[in-house]
Structure formats: C-alpha cells, structure tokens
Amino acid sequence: MRIQLLFILLVGVTLASCQQEPTIQTTPSGFEYILHTDNGGEKPVAGDYVSFHAYMRNGDSVIYSSRDQPKPPFLQIPGEAPANRPPNPLEEVMQLMGMGDSATVMIAIDTLDQKPKGFEDTDVMYYDLVIADIKSAQQQADEQNAQMEEAKRQAEELKERLPEVEALVQETLESYQNNTLGDQLQETGSGLKYVIHEEGDGAQAAPGKVVGVHYYGVLAEDGERFDDSFSRGQPIDLPLGQGRVIPGWEEGIALFKGGTKATLFIPAPLGYGEAGSPPTIPGGAELMFYVELGEVQ
User: Fold this and answer.
1) DSSP labels, 161-199
2) Rounded distance, CA 113 to CA 2, Å?
3) What is the pLDDT of residues 11-50, one digit of tens each?
4) Cα separations in angstroms, 117 against 36, 114, 122, 171, 224
5) What are 37's strand-pairing partners?
6) Minimal CA–CA distance to 38: which of 128, 110, 87, 98?
7) CATH number at residue 130
8) How far apart are CA 72 and CA 55, in angstroms?
9) Do both 209 and 116 map to the same domain?
10) Is 91 domain-assigned?
11) Is 85 domain-assigned?
12) Do 18 and 112 share a domain, yes or no?
C-alpha cells in the first residue's frame, strides 16, 4: 500500500505538473530533472550520506522499487569527482534536494552501457526520488557502530538460545517419527507438513515481501543437523517469490506471519530432490526445519 500510495502521489504530481507545463531543469552536467517538492530544507554537502526511496519507471510502469528492500538505499555525496569518472545524475540531483523533497530524473538510455531489463522498448528511464534522510559522515559512522554493537549483542543472545532450540527440534522430531503430533501437524496439497509452535501477530509473509528468518535444519530420518543460523548469530533476509530457496521454504514461510515459530517437514520433491545436496544432504532426503520469522517487510 505504501508503495502504491507514494507512486500514485508521484505520478499525480507529475501529471499535474504536466498540465501546468512542468519546469524541466538541468544539472551542471546536463542531466534533466523535474523537482516536484521543495520543502526548503538544508541540502546535503560533500561527505553527507543520503538515504532515499527510488522508483525506476518505463513510462507509467514501475520496473523497480526500493520499497521491496529491507532498508532504503543510500549514497555518499562525493567531494570533487575524479576526472576519469563520469558524472552521476542521481548524485547531482540529490545535492539539490532536502529532506522530504521529491524529484524525477530523466536518464537517456543511450548514455548507459546497455539497456536495463524492462527498458528495451524505450529511450528514457524515469527515476523518481524521495529523500528519506540526510546524515553527516560522523552521524553515519556512529550509527553503523551502534548497529554493529547491537548485532553482536543479538548474536550472543542467539548462541545462548542454541541448546533450547536443539531440545525443541529433538522433541518435535521424536513426536513426528512416533506419529504423536496429532492435530498439531498440518499438511498442504503439495505434501508439505508443518507445526506452528507459536503464532506471530506480524504481517503475513507472501511472495514479493522480504522476511528475516532464523532456522535450524536437520534430516528428518535421523535428526542430523546440516545447517542453522542460530550458531552464526544472524538470520537470513529472504525475498519470497524469487526462487532463491527450495520450494518447501517458498511455500512454507509464506504460510506464516511475522513473529511465528514453526517447524517445516519438507519432502524431497520440495527440497533437494533425488540428487540431494552432497555432502550434507543425501538424495531423496526429507528435511526438517525449525524456523522463527522476524519482521515481514
């Protein structure tokens, strides 16, 4: 909804500007842009870090949105650019924008090394920008240091939880092997089975969304562990619907809401098939994953 709303607002502003003959301006290097919103705030200077949301459009069709990512992208405003580096239209336009300002940059496709996917039939890429935040180099460094310290703290907490997770995995596997899970065990039409230990109250996971997942994977036959994120102290950020994980994960994770703790039992056709994934996963193996979902974005 936020993606659609912001895009509608940007397109609305663009259409309204078109009706009012919008002023197309040019950067010092000659890149064309339209400034939709100017709140009069302070502009970034060399060395500042600018976080932004971006929409790449082919006409009115959105090809890419930064809202699909866990965090908005950012770039550092350069000082004097090296003589051998071509000018960057986004850097030049962002230096003319403040917090909350929005603009559209028109990038001629023939200035790129090759036509990006989705822009084969056009001569212009429209790049809609909204400035989300501006930080000094020191503020950026302080924030990154704080994030690293928090990541270390969380990693230690996760490692301390490892015995608890291993005990739950062992208990659930024994119940599964002894057919004593009863109504807790649910099955989908594909043959995927799952147990929800604790249902979360976050957003529903679904294709097109990104979710952080902690997991502990074992072979369902004998409980041998082959991989887990708890010992590493860091979840994986999973973009659903892009085929980056086995089908059992794509289907299983999409069943849950953020905050859910569950176990997936994945048959071989939804896992690594008859080939397996040597040397840790033999061919035809049924897999068991205990998973904990973080925030769904």
Assistant:
1) HHHHHHHHHHHHHHHHHTT--GGG-EE-TTS-EEEEEE-
2) 32
3) 444 444 444 567 899 998 899 999 999 999 999 999 999 9
4) 27, 9, 11, 48, 43
5) 102
6) 98
7) 3.10.50.40
8) 11
9) no
10) yes
11) yes
12) yes
